[in-house]
Fold this protein.
Amino acid sequence: MSATDTTTTAEVGREAAPPRPLWHVILVRPETMTLVLLVLGVIVASQLSPYFLDVSYILRSFTLSAEFAIVALVLTMVIIAGEIDLSPAANMALSACLFAWAQASGVPIPIAVAIGLGAGLLMGALNAFMVIALQLPSIIVTIGTLTLYRGLAQVIAGDKSIRVPEWFIGIDRVLVFGLPVPVVIFIVTAIVLGFVLAGTIFGRQIYQIGTNEIAARHAGIRSRQIKLVLFLLIGAVAATAGMMTASRLGSVRYDLGLGGELQMVLMAMLGGTYIFGGRGTILGTFLAAWLLVVVSTGMTVANLLPAIQLTVLGVLLIVAIIATNFIYSRTQR
Amino acid sequence: MLKKTIAGIALGLTMATGALAQDPLSMVYIGKNTGNPYFDSINGGFVDACKSLGCEYEFVAPATAEATSQIPFIEAQIQRGVDVIAIAPNSPDALNQVLDSARAAGILVLTVNGDLTGNESHRDATILPVNFDIVGRDQVEMVGSLIGYEGEIAILSATTEAPDQNKWIVGMNETLKNDPKYAKMTLVATVYGDDQPEKSTAEMEALLANFPNLKGVIAPTTVGIAAAAQVVQSRGIADQVKVTGLGLPSEMRDFVKDGTVTAFQLWSPYNEGWLAAHFAKGVKEGTIKNEVGSTFEVPNLGTITINENNSINTQAELTTFTAENIDDFNF
């Protein structure tokens, strides 16, 4: 197999590209682009409105999409593994509805929370069953379950909203070290998942099945088990996010988190996760979540029209996709 | 560069002198969503009132009328330090927490053209065009008079969770059930067009297909009534199915002129903005007491009374628009 000893210099020159210089490895990455956009976003937003540059305001605004951001971290791992899950926002609504409905009918809160979490796991398991056991494409499966979970939520809650008890309201107003709790949860989740993805064998295996699942399986990686874990994880995290939203809003409706799946995918894409799997980082999604909040908050506080806001977000996404693909095609060798 | 510096200094000076003199009252109106002509009219009332009262005024609105889409806008206005937030709420309860923090920041919170039904304690007062308790009753009377108080009717509403429409629908159902005058009228369906023209049109088509004996349709939403009228016009069945409801004269003018729609109702959205701005200014300056039972004067509208639940109405009855009077209204 090995020809290293006898390789002539000419062959070395032809086969191996020169190693990329260290600065190249560190700087030419999609996350760098996200970071640059984030810094630019902060500068532009603070020029647009004198009211923007206020840390407590930015943190408070972040809590409005923190639930989506937390799920987006797990979604990043799912996408790296070569799958996708579009159902988490609907999962959030159904778990939150079940939780609220249970506690409203007299079940103690801890058990109601367990019901919500269990429902989230079950929804993840259903997705996993269809994707792994029935070998169906995850994009189709989760578009289906997106509609199904949202529909079930409406069956449970109807058109009414379900109140949660007064003491359960306001997780976003509780501060830990000056940070709202949802932001703390987001940061801790990012650190833990970042470590799992970059620093453990499990994490490396996620990248491998995303790059080439058949090769990974031949190499002895249990890709089905890994995918099952990921679908269960995103189900449970989505359920948690749903109950956090319930606490923030003080009431639950079937339309909780409506359209959130697009925001989650947007965060992963803006952070440089490759839609076909195998590439991406938690750091990228982490930065992208802040980028999205900074951009939309900056425009809202400057009283810009929603039409302009949508246009800017669209341009951002396209720039991110082009840059990501360009960088990956340059560094793939 | 020099120009910029000078401009910057000038700006700084005006801001400094502005702060020295009394800050003008700043007011914002948060609509349900953008691209909704109904709100242009309310906005017009605010703009004119703020011009004559000397307040700063802005109109903002999210892209979609979804329950939580107004929250970032309210947060942004708190951050901007406005004095008054007037809002047409997209949800009766999802805004409770953020409106509470606005009020904690000393902001006067008014709901205009829609209320937080059941959660009135989270706003300071509400400005509604008419007493919403009578809208359902009046709409049933309207459709009844058009179809001779006999036959099948249906309701084409906005979204399933729209608080005002739902309140009116409850009123319609109660009137139909309790008033013997309407005993021969049957409500066969209540459908929701989500305030989207395409969905409303599809729902109207479905009503006609499912209930061939349908005599009348109440669409208590400006988008719904226009879509329903469009369907009736293109099918040429105006003599079989009577469309009525709440609509904008500007959007309904052609349908009324060609006989597709005989009569429909609404109020003056302009007056809501006009009244809200005068009320807010008065409350902020201490000349109006925001208490149930107290009264105040508004130019062009006369004496206004604050009713139960701190609710204020701009007019006593719905205005009915027909071919005779529709040209008198320009909103």
Notes: The interface with chain B takes residues 49, 51, 54, 57, 60-61, 64, 159, 161, 163, 169-170, 173, 248-251, 253, 255-256, 258-259, 296-297, 300-301, 303, 305-307, 309-310 of chain A (CB under 8 Å). The radius of gyration of chain A is 22 Å. Residues 1-13 of chain A have pLDDT under 50 and may be disordered.
